[in-house]
Amino acid sequence: MRWLTLIALVLVVAAPASAASITGQYLEARTCEVFTGPCFSNADTGLVGRHGLMAWRIDKGSLDNVSLDGLTVVAVVAGSDTLGLRQTGEGKAILIVDKKANDAQKAALIRLAKQQGGDLVKNVISVQSAAIVMESCECKEGGCARLDAGIAKVETRCINDKHDKTCGNEWALYPPLAKNVKDARAAVALEHTFTGKGFNETWKDGERRGAYLGTFDVR
Question: What is the residue extent of each domain of the chain?
Fold first, then answer.
């Protein structure tokens, strides 16, 4: 019996750190269309869409017993190929963590972004702190939001069924980049900019059907 007790204790100590339920708002933008048709996406493949960002605003939850309520983390990514397709080379990521976070919370936010962002956030070349504003705007379709993380900014609007369709065969062709995203809604990115350093390149994109809004639930 004593040996069974010791084995149980070892298993508990060796168990990997896990997240309690973490819920919140998700925002994504890319430099390619996500609401599109196959003809347009095929034409864009390999030419555009290597850049994007993912943002998580935590409403409630903790990671490794560290509360993340009300905090935000942003992953700005530069891939080797069009995001959403198989990457033939190693990408790069810059993380922007909420300035309000303490050291333990910053470490937890970094872990959360790397877990949910997957391979696109595997190679983090820089971690920065900034005041981050991420808010949703009231609208019928739920596609309006704004993100201001200093060097990274996104503003979105809802897709208009009459004015934002070109061939009539469009849908949300590319799924969201992050894991555990729910109720994803494609939107038009009125503004999607990155003005920071680290990639040796910046971008300024706009009026592109290249954004997603949704929620996330990590368990």
Answer: 20-218
Would you call 45 exposed, middle or buried from its count of C-beta atoms within 10 A (0-12, 13-18, 19+)? middle
Express each pLDDT in 28-63 by its tens digit.
999 998 866 455 555 565 557 899 999 999 999 999
Q: Provide the phi-psi class of 99: left if phi over 0, else alpha when psi is between -120 and 50, else beta.
A: alpha
**CA-based nearest residue to 137, from 33, 216, 25, 34:** 25
pLDDT 10s digits, 167-188: 555 546 789 999 999 999 999 9
Q: Which two tokens stand for residue 63?
A: 């990671």
pTM listed for this prediction = 0.86
For residue 216, CA distances in Å to 4, 48, 49 come to 39, 27, 23
Single out the residue of 219, 218, 217, 202 nearest to residue 53, CA to CA.
202
- pLDDT tens sequence across 140-157: 777 899 999 999 999 999
Beta carbons within 8 Å of 105's beta carbon, 6+ residues apart: 66, 67, 68, 71, 98
Q: Higher-confidence residue: 164 or 110?
A: 110
